[in-house]
Amino acid sequence: MIVKPFNWKIFFILLAASVFGVVAVLPYSLALQGSRLASLQLPIPLWLLITLQVLQNAVLFAVVIAVGLLAANRVGLGLPILEGWLEKQPVGDKIKSILLPGILIGVIGSVLVIVIDLLVFSPVLAAEFGGLFKGLDQEQLQPAAWKGLLASFYGGIDEELLLRLGLMSVLVWLGRFVSKTADGRPTQAVIWTANILAAVLFGLGHLPATAVLMPLTPLVITRAVVLNGIVGVGAGYLYARRGLEAAILSHFSADIVLHVLLAL
Predict the structure, then answer these.
(1) Number of compact structural domains in the chain
(2) Does some domain include residue 27?
(3) How far is 146 from 126, CA to CA, in rounded Å?
(4) Is residue 210 domain-resident?
(5) Residue 190, Cα to own-chain centre: how many angstroms?
(6) Does residue 52 belong to any structural domain of this protein?
């Protein structure tokens, strides 16, 4: 298997995209934490705190993107559309090939999330924690659609850079030392194990935001892993089969349903 060289142009494009996502999610995050921020005595002005957080995230994503690209280049993963475009190759067919599966898997995943949450988790959570939500305004429970739209860019871009390009690529690279094909590629078992592990960690990564609204009981943790894992597994499948661009499109499509259409 040929190892692709590290591409600095891709690195800086992805870094710029990640910073855009971090800035775009700010209105949504501030809406979720509105009452909490109002009760805090911040040691520095809020605008300065936000600026420092953006810079901190930029450093974090620089590391994640660099490590992710190094790992992806060694296991046959990557960004085929962006790579082809930078090499001045025609990419129209590649873009068309990800549109239907990317959008469809994202929308189906989001519908499954809604149905499972309504039928399985919401009734139990309402009985156990219903009183906790009485003091919250609608913005904290479901921020406005325009804020959800902006947050969808963070979900589609930043979370895919973290979980698929970063974590999943590294897990696949490590798994290749355990199981690989005759030509040195990771086996399907390795890819699916990495996909599921990344999806579980994707769900666990949402717990800090959930903790703002309710205690982190075993049920709440299970809900986060299952519901977010549905979207994560779909995105991981697309990343392995069609590249990171397809995973980004799928995740973005799911978030449009969950954070925009449900808020209308």
Answers:
(1) 1
(2) yes
(3) 27
(4) yes
(5) 21
(6) yes
- Is residue 2 assigned to a domain? no
pLDDT in tens, the chain (264 residues): 778 999 999 999 999 999 999 999 999 988 887 656 656 677 888 889 899 999 999 999 999 999 999 999 999 999 999 999 999 999 999 999 999 999 999 999 999 999 999 999 988 887 777 655 555 555 666 889 999 999 999 999 999 999 999 999 999 999 999 999 988 899 999 999 999 999 999 999 888 877 777 788 898 999 999 999 999 999 999 999 999 999 999 999 999 999 999 988
Burial class for 264, CB neighbours closer than 10 Å (0-12, 13-18, 19+):
exposed
Query: 76-104: buried (b, 16+ CB within 10 Å) or exposed (e) per residue?
Result: bbbbbbbbbeeeeeebeebbebbeebbbe
Question: 206 phi and psi, to 5 degrees?
Answer: -85, -5
Q: Give the domain extent around 87.
A: 8-263
Side chain identity, residue 206? H
CB within 8 Å of 193: residues ≥ 6 apart? 171, 175
Q: What angle do CA 6, 200, 34 make, to 5 degrees?
A: 95
- Residue 223 token pair: 């809900």
Contact 162, 239 (CB under 8 A): no
Contact, 224 vs 204, CB < 8 A? yes
